[in-house]
C-alpha cells in the first residue's frame, strides 16, 4: 500500500497532539497546527489556532484514550482521520483533516468533536 507511510504519519501526529509535553508547548503544538486551523469542539465551542494553543497549554487533564483510528486519503496532500475518544465522562467521535502544502509537513487544518452517549 503506497499510502501507508503518509497515513501512519498522520495517525502518529494526531496522537502526538494528545501528548502532555506537546500540548503544553505552544511551539511543539504550533508546529502541528495549520496557520488556518479551526475546530468545532465537542463542547460546542468554535476554536481558532490561537485559542486552541492557549487552551492546550493550560489543560492539565490526562490525555483521552483514542480508539478505532481510521486514516483515509482524500487527495494527494489531504488525509481524513476519524476515531473515538474515551475521556472520563466525555466520550466523543472525532475527525481531523490533515493537509500538506507544497511538500511541507503534515498539519491539522480542521478538527471536530461530537459527543456520544
From TrEMBL:
Q: Where are the transmembrane segments?
A: none
**Domain of life (superkingdom):** Bacteria
The DUF4440 domain sits at 11-108
User: Known Pfam families for this protein?
Assistant: DUF4440 (PF14534)
Q: Fetch the SUPFAM superfamilies from UniProt.
A: NTF2-like
Protein name per the record: DUF4440 domain-containing protein
Amino acid at each position: 500500500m503506497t499510502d501507508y507511510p503518509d497515513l501512519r504519519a498522520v495517525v502518529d501526529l494526531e496522537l502526538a497532539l494528545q501528548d502532555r509535553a506537546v500540548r503544553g508547548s505552544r511551539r511543539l503544538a504550533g508546529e502541528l497546527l495549520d496557520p488556518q486551523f479551526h475546530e468545532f469542539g465537542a463542547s460546542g465551542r468554535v476554536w481558532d489556532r490561537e485559542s486552541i494553543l492557549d487552551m492546550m497549554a493550560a489543560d492539565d487533564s490526562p490525555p483521552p484514550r483514542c480508539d478505532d483510528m481510521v486514516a483515509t486519503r482524500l487527495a494527494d496532500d489531504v488525509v481524513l482521520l476519524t476515531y473515538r475518544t474515551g475521556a472520563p465522562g466525555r466520550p466523543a467521535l472525532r475527525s481531523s483533516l490533515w493537509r500538506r502544502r507544497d511538500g511541507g509537513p503534515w498539519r491539522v487544518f480542521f478538527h471536530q468533536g461530537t459527543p456520544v452517549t
